[in-house]
Amino acid sequence: MKRRSFIKITGVLSISIVLPYTFSSCNSSLNLNDTLATPYELLEVISKDESIEIGNQYCKAIPKEAKIDTLISLLSKGNTRESLKKMITDDFNLGNTIIINGWVLAQTEARQCALLSILI
Amino acid sequence: MHIDARHLENNSLIEGDICIVGAGAAGISIALDWINTPYKVILLEGGGLEYDSKVQQLYQGENSGQKYFPLMSSRWHSFGGTTALWGGYCTEYDTIDFKKRDWVQHSGWPISKIDLIPYYKKAGDNLDLFSDNFSLEHWQRKNNKLKNLPLDKDTIWNKIWQFSPPTRFAEKYKDKISNAKNIHLYTYANVTDIITNDDSSEVIEVTTKNHANKTHKVKAKHFILACSALQNARLLLASTSQNPKGLGNENDNVGRYFMEHIEIKSSELWMNSAFSMNLYLLNWGKTKARAEIAITAEMQRKYKLLNGTVSIKPLDKARFEESNIEHWNDEDPRNNTFTRSAWEKIKHKVSVYKESRVDHINQAYQLSIRIEQEPKVSSRITLDTERDTLGVPKSDLNWVLSANEKKSIRKIQEIIGQQIGKSGIGRIKLLDYLQDETNLSWPDYTSGGLHHMGTTRMHKDPKKGVVDANCKIHGIHNLFVAGSSCFTTSGAANPTLTLIALSLRLSDYLKNNFNS
Fold it and tell me: Closest approach of chain B CAs to the CA of A98, in angstroms?
């Protein structure tokens, strides 16, 4: 089932505090990961469960990226919601897309789903 | 003038200047074009003015290839032809459809779109279209509520369809044809044989038969076969008096390159906010024009795609609709109907589905593709060993699909998905059968559009086609073919408007070259 929803994952992510990264403060790293692991635009048309399943499939398809630090490194080029949105638009524009479970997705948002699926 | 051939004295001789075999969209359009000319036109219709089941049975045949509709009900065998059944969808073929494309084997018509442009308006008039203008801008000026999806114009364009009421040629043209002094319509005059001179360079006469056991001969200066793609080929193959391979078939092309349009649901569009889709939706009986999403010629070249267009329907209804191939399965064509009865069947399911959902199902749409087929030597009609009740061998259709057709369908959905994503308005989800790129099989609900094309294809080289650029059969100076059997490739568009335009072009050619 697909629902229009904006998931609040801060509470969930707070469980996965053990991260190999170091940031200036624990709170800012959580906020960044919150953003990186939330494919906002995609979640307007699919459910959180489906995004996690997409993430699982992405990790199976591209196992070399199926690590938290790798995904965070790839996604951190956009460290705000707006810059991630631009990365997604650029992906679609350049044809950097991947089809998972039938969904035609930007590489960036597929990685976000992958990160979410690992962190959950 | 109308004559029932069952009431003629047996072995009558009928003579005229031109003889048109078949009174469907192509044959009637040509006959109309000759009204008030000094020529006597014989118009032969195998059926009556109304449906006759015994005559309809003459269309029975076998399907030995891909699952297909019953041949008996895929065409209507009475005056007016299959306009008795059609849905009224009209649009022009695209420029690229006529071109030689190095990624589409056997592509390239001997004519271009420019050659048909003068005839499209008249064809549209025959079909009661509102306008001869198919541009998006024209229709958006007429109705500013027709908003197009904000997609990149270098990749996607909006192809416009108009809707004939649909015009039933029997109703509309029966009186005009019957009252025209120089048009002699013979019903119950099934052509069963074409007789030529010894070297098969000229048609001398055709033989007609009916179930009243009357046989007649028709002589004319020129003959035009206009009885649909299956029947045109069948008749040529069955006319073996001078040549066991049939007529026009020295190079074994008659009946080959049979093409349909693959029509199949392909993906879902889920939008993140409301968007007026009036431009794309069809309200039967009210919509004058609507758009389907098309891929530009540049993108077709870049990705080596077949030409196809995508229509859009609200997902809540579309999810429960049967495909045409599942729905159109009765041998009696009167029992296979579109629209209202199909909607009645699913109405209850749709309302229950909508009540059970809490999400934005009203912003979800099913995308369905209509795509051309690659012309294939192996996709063909041949003659069966069994004969119909008038002694003519029945047809056997071997409809063939290809991997490239499925690959094109998948890639087109992907391209649309990229554009939808880029625009930020939603996402596309491919249906199950398209998700695995390596799976080249087709689902059971893969359908055609009842569009029969290509069996007497046009090509300037007689080794590669049956008719030349003027629809004349290679090697037979007074035998022509009208209709979609002449199509070299199938295009993405419903064929009716174009087959009538092509037939009117043939009509002009004959008028200008009658005595040559």
Answer: 9
Shortest Cα–Cα distance, A47 to chain B (Å): 10
Indicate the DSSP class of residue B307.
P
Round to whole Å and give the CA distance between B295 and B419: 11
Which of A4, A41, A91 comes nearest B424 by C-beta? Answer: A41
Residue B161 pairs in a beta bridge with B290
Alpha-carbon distance values, B121 to A3, A52, B134, B244, B486 (Å): 48, 54, 11, 41, 20
Q: What ipTM does this complex have?
A: 0.91
With beta carbons less than 8 A apart as the criterion, state whether B407 and B288 touch.
Answer: no
- From chain B, the residues in CB contact with A104 under 8 A are 413-414, 417-418, 420-421, 427-430
CB nearest to B270's CB, from A2, A95, A99: A2
- Residue whose C-alpha is closest to residue B76's, from B327, B452, B490: B452
Interface test with A, best of B418, B420, B436, B438 (most A CBs within 10 A): B418
- What pLDDT sits at residue A16? 45
Asked whether the predicted pLDDT for residue A27 surpasses 90, the reply is no
Compute the distance between CA of residue B495 and CA of residue B485 in angstroms, rounded to an integer. Answer: 10
Are the C-beta atoms of residues B261 and B487 closer than 8 Å to each other?
no
Collect all residues with Cβ–Cβ distance below 8 Å to B445 and sequence separation of at least 6. B264, B265, B322, B323, B325, B326
Say whether residue B508 is in contact with chain A using an 8 A CB cutoff. no
Min Cα distance A21 → chain B (Å) is 31
pLDDT of B201-233, one tens digit each?
Answer: 999 999 999 999 999 999 999 999 999 999 999
pLDDT digits (tens, 9 = 90+) for A33-82: 788 999 999 999 999 999 999 999 999 999 999 999 999 999 988 788 99
Residues 427-446 of B with CB under 8 A from A: 427-432, 434-435
Model pLDDT for residues A68-94, shown as the tens digit of each residue: 999 999 998 878 899 999 999 999 999
**Secondary structure class of A94 (helix, strand, coil):** helix
CB contact under 8 A, B414 and A92: no
C-alpha span between A4 and A46 (Å, rounded)? 7
Of B114-128, B195-209, B359-373, where does mean pLDDT reach its minimum?
A: B359-373
pLDDT in tens, B266-283: 999 999 988 999 999 998
Spatial neighbors of B285 by CB under 8 A, at least 6 apart, are none
Position B328 scores a pLDDT of: 86
